[in-house]
Amino acid sequence: METGLQQLGKAGALTLALLGTTSALAQSARTVLPQPAPAFSGTIGETIQQSRPGSPHAVRAPQGAPNILVLMSDDVGFAMASTFGGPVPTPNMDRVAAQGQRYNRFHTTGVCSPSRAALLTGRNHHNAGVGYLSDLPVNFPGYGGRIVPETATMAQVLRLNGYNTAMFGKHHNMPASDRSAAGPFDAWPTGLGFEYFFGFNSGDNDQYWPILFRGTNPVDPSEGKGQMLDRRLADDIIRYVHNQNAASPGKPFLLYWAPGSTHAPHQAPPEYIARFKGQFDQGWDKLREESFKRQLAGGIVPKGTKLTARPAEIPAWASLSPQQKAFAARTMEVAAAQLAMQDEQIGRVLAELDRMGLASNTLVSIIQGDNGASGEAGPPGTINELRSIETHDENEAWMIANTEKLGGPDTYANYPVGWAWAMNTPLRWVKQMPSMLGGVRNGMVLAWPNHVARPGSICPQFAHLVDIVPTVLEAAKLPAPDVVYGVKQKPMDGQSLMASLAACDGAKPRTQYFEIGGKVGLYHDGWFLSGDDGRPSWEAEAAAKPPKWSLYNLDKDFSQGTDLAAKEPAKLSEMLALWKIEATRNNVFPVDSRRPMDRVDRQSAGSPRKQFDYWGKDVSMPAVGAAPYLAGRSFTVRAELVLDKADASGAVLAWGSKFGGISLYLDHGHAAFVWAKSTDPAEMATVRSAATLPKGKVTVTLRFETTPTAAMAILSSNGTEIARGLLPGKMLMAAGNGENLDIGRDLGVPVAAYTTPFGEIEGDVPHVSITFD
């Protein structure tokens, strides 16, 4: 006769088995993530002899799910790479295109952060909460600057379905205030589903001396010394795949690769730049014609496409002086070299996947650009991106004097807008202009061995960044989840492109809006509505104007060359009404056409602090967002030091870099202060004490006093003034975007020419205080 315990055990086992079946059904649906764990399938008695362990539970990807490699480069125009008729040879991307399919009507959002949010979530950028640059959040539903929980990322969905997930390169989807050691970390890549992250969080980064993170931890600045950032990213991808495959062969992975090139700074090794010597001397007008001929011959653009005219705001190449031409040609040589180097890294990674036997089941999407080519440097170009981005008043003689240094570590360059326009051939205008195809149309290649009906073909179907996530999920045989971590999900805005690999449907119905900074676009079944305020992308100070509306039939007008608004008033009215519906549905309102710095949400930012304290010489934080703004107003820095010797050297406090920044430092025992608006000697100043500081404990004070047009720097030691000097200005921008405020060192690009590695101080910095008047 069975005991009561045995009977109970059998009944319990049956109940657990039934629960397990229910749970298994829920797991098989994969619509609720994390997937519910199945009920315990064993039996539990009072002793181990009376018990049976359950089956182990592990979340696994569906059988045959492919590896995923998604690469999105930065500021590469539609017509830069040879794959889409451009002047820069990209043989590795060409090979992927020969195995897969090119999309010549693929679209982005028009600027960095929104494009990345759309790519990662499969939702429109305002719908995901990133309607503008994440650096400038505003407290409206579409503009918070962080990807919202209702739009889980591709990485979150794949990881919770049994994938390994890793990200490499540029993450520009969190407000600057989140980028310090205090977080919050929800918007970091590791908070968005990536198990591994190696890269940077800002809009750009120096290619020679980048500030990088692994996970949420800063990378040792000595790591990768002497190697360009693009190569380091590829090295890390290969290292990651080696280790992931060694630990779990057969487990699929997601590699999201966002190299950050060819965003400014345009930097590349001299041997790469030399490859392009003289290849752009013909200028942007002629180059545009040459690219257009290649595009027509290669079927990149359909016959009958119009080569749109150069806007009046962009100077003709012939109008430039010989010195201006030489400078401009060199800027393009450097940009081409940077893209060529990026393409070589693509080749290295793909070759390694092939060598490991992984390429045959890897879905590859290469998106050349998160928007059109950048015209933000305006007609003259720049050797110092952030220095010029607001006022465009760099000293031309100084720029030309640096022509041969372009591409090296002493410049932070971006080419003239004429080249950006040429890199978008045959389209109109450039980045930041979603009303124009030159701002939002980018080349994309999609490849998956044995899944492309016509390898090497060109698909004219309308496509958008939001289509990548649905494509990946269909390839992996996964549904878009209804709930992720208890949060009900918004439906996908994108559509899978998997069917287009079998049969491309260029006439597939589609509606897609565009909006950045008050400029508007709307695609609907071949028609395109453009609402543009007439402000060029480099004129940040221009007053906002109501948009001028124009209308194009892109089925017959690939390049947006013929405005039909006057001839089609009914269609124009229909498109305007549809735009309002789409804008309302996607949290686009209120449309914000203010200049970038006017978008800062003062209410969310709170009252400005007057006192900052730092305890120790190993403190670093982002120069913008977390650190105080050390320009334009009077303040006092008081530093308590303990020096190892009387002739100690190294940084006490450094903010920014030589491209824009300040440093209070020691030079062989002399207290010194450097102020640099740029690398132009006319915009730099150094104040240095005649006497040296003693060994041991000493206090150094910097007094920064502003005047209406400039500023005075006063240095004191233990209460006694030791040096003072007038500075050539009071305003500067900490540059570039990835730079820090550092205590006791100077990471990234240094502000001053220190005699110690990374400006490490020879001693200690127990306390630094900054007090604003």
From TrEMBL:
Question: Keyword annotations for this protein?
Answer: Calcium, Hydrolase, Metal-binding, Signal
Q: Which Pfam families match?
A: Sulfatase
Question: In this protein, which residues make up the domain named Sulfatase N-terminal?
Answer: 66-476
The record's annotation in InterPro entries points to:
Alkaline_phosphatase_core_sf (IPR017850), Sulfatase (IPR050738), Sulfatase_CS (IPR024607), Sulfatase_N (IPR000917)
* Enzyme nomenclature, EC number: 3.1.6.-
| Signal peptide start and end residues | 1-26
Q: Which GO terms describe its molecular function?
A: hydrolase activity
Family (UniProt) = Belongs to the sulfatase family.
**What is this protein identified as?**
Arylsulfatase
Which source organism? Answer: Novosphingobium aquae
